[in-house]
Amino acid sequence: MKAAVFVEPGKIEVQERPQPTIQQPTDAIIRVIRACVCGSDLWWYRGLKQREVNSTVGHEAIGIVEQVGAAVQNVQPGDFVIVPFTHGCGHCAACRAGFEGNCVNEEPGLNPGYQAQYLRFTNAHWALVKIPGQPEDYDEEQLNSLLTLSDVMATGYHAAMSAQVQAGDTVAIVGDGAVGLCAVIAAKLQGAQRIITLSHHTKRAQLAQKFGATDIVSMRDEAAIQAVLKLTDQAGVDAVLECVGTEQAVSMAVKIARAGAVIGRVGLPQNSQMNTNDLFWGNIGLRGGIASVTKYDRQRLLAAVLKREINPGQVFTHKFTLDQIQAAYEAMDQRQAIKSLVIVNQ
Amino acid sequence: MKAAVFVEPGKIEVQERPQPTIQQPTDAIIRVIRACVCGSDLWWYRGLKQREVNSTVGHEAIGIVEQVGAAVQNVQPGDFVIVPFTHGCGHCAACRAGFEGNCVNEEPGLNPGYQAQYLRFTNAHWALVKIPGQPEDYDEEQLNSLLTLSDVMATGYHAAMSAQVQAGDTVAIVGDGAVGLCAVIAAKLQGAQRIITLSHHTKRAQLAQKFGATDIVSMRDEAAIQAVLKLTDQAGVDAVLECVGTEQAVSMAVKIARAGAVIGRVGLPQNSQMNTNDLFWGNIGLRGGIASVTKYDRQRLLAAVLKREINPGQVFTHKFTLDQIQAAYEAMDQRQAIKSLVIVNQ
Average of pLDDT values for B129-153? Predict the structure, then answer.
């Protein structure tokens, strides 16, 4: 089969690899229909994070179940599924608490390799999310929205859940990447009354507005902080969705939060050495981490996509085939694409 | 009048001072009945924090309203009141959000000086909490419990509120000082099923058990972490109440929390430079700050003391008169007293 492979920083190649096989009774083999490139992939693409040479890549997909292990009852071959980047077992303490992104029964060192024709999915007995019908029952927009439920939309939603966004809230979104844009959708879904997106990219700001942002703050740094405070009569916002991951982004989040607000942080943290005293003196909370993809999809997000209540698939501004994987990464790396879609099988 | 005054690190003196007067329509003058010494007072007593020489001290009291400003309607002269260390105005964004400890209308640079015969209380029109009846209607134990509602019990409760403790939870308390012991009471009040107190002082551990702790972990550092994990089948606890304030205490809290748990931090933070990546990778939240004393007293704590559902006054292990203020501080400093009570007027 064809699989995207990391050759060196800046270089991804499609290579021929053996088709994966069932190794545990809880495994499933998935034939990938659509995959995509994540902002977090850029860390190793840019050489800022180590990655094993010749490893397969990608962790977001929708596809068809090809084969299941003996313990997998919830899906069967032929089912159309969301393939989460998380692999909750469904029964450990973390999964039971609703935080499957911290499942203690995940296979250590697992390299998912979703940018490929086939993938092996672990803990399929719980974590796979069945989509009604077959791919041909959906149009382009809905297929793309279903694909976002494997990571980016669930991650934006985790920001809103972590920040405990409630109906009527004023919410600020730090980060205008695909996760930040999905966080706008999530804030709106939670009933936020006012959604302030910090963005200095016209196209991203426009999409944020389409998704529900009521205000765009296009300044940077201190000027952005002052602008948000001005919009809230100096009170600060009820919740901040931090979708970048840098220390600077978290620090900005603290400065625009009102007393008692919670920052929902889903940007993968880089060097987050910070003085947390400001959090204390502002009674500001910091929560977040890896999203609970399966839980969120089942609870709410899949239904919202099926009803077309949300259309997160619009974050895919550029479309590629698996053979064009290098270009898919380049478009993200150069910020031409908000998010690159990768068509694998039709 | 007599007032306790900070002379130099290690030295507190009772001096004659002018009786305070109404300066704002929202002020009240309180005749202090009982006051006490707070763990946070030890920071400047020990010279670890700067404090103005000759400043009056103390921020916890119960007393009788002596005089009120024109705007104060909720209490009148003669009323018996809890005198919170916080001074919420009741109507700013922070107060409306329920975080009066961050009231933006607090008088800047206010030095409360509650360890004195009289004190001036600002924002009395909202923040003072009326106690039914008069001091002589209560016995020693209940008077002491009422006194804890000016700070320490409300602060322990804020730890539980910040950590979002729910019925059935397994909760760990880091810190066996008066705040940590009150946090045990708060966790129990919230319906926690299992309350693990980290304490290596027999008397404090005994009081924790009296207050509702189900398990005592007496080891230190890594051994304590392993003991808590063992008690929870390696899962970690549902909530951690951090009642110390050091970086080490917060770091320990992170290591004993299960995925998705929230650390409720009420220990005044010292040098809290920390790497927050561990929070992210564990989906662990960090919340907390200054307690909402008036709100908590009115919502729940005053009624609980009046019904004798809780008896936080037992944290006062040593009793002094105002004239003995130096000894009251020494007893806390040398960890002889869990908390020093100061009888001012009968």
Answer: 98
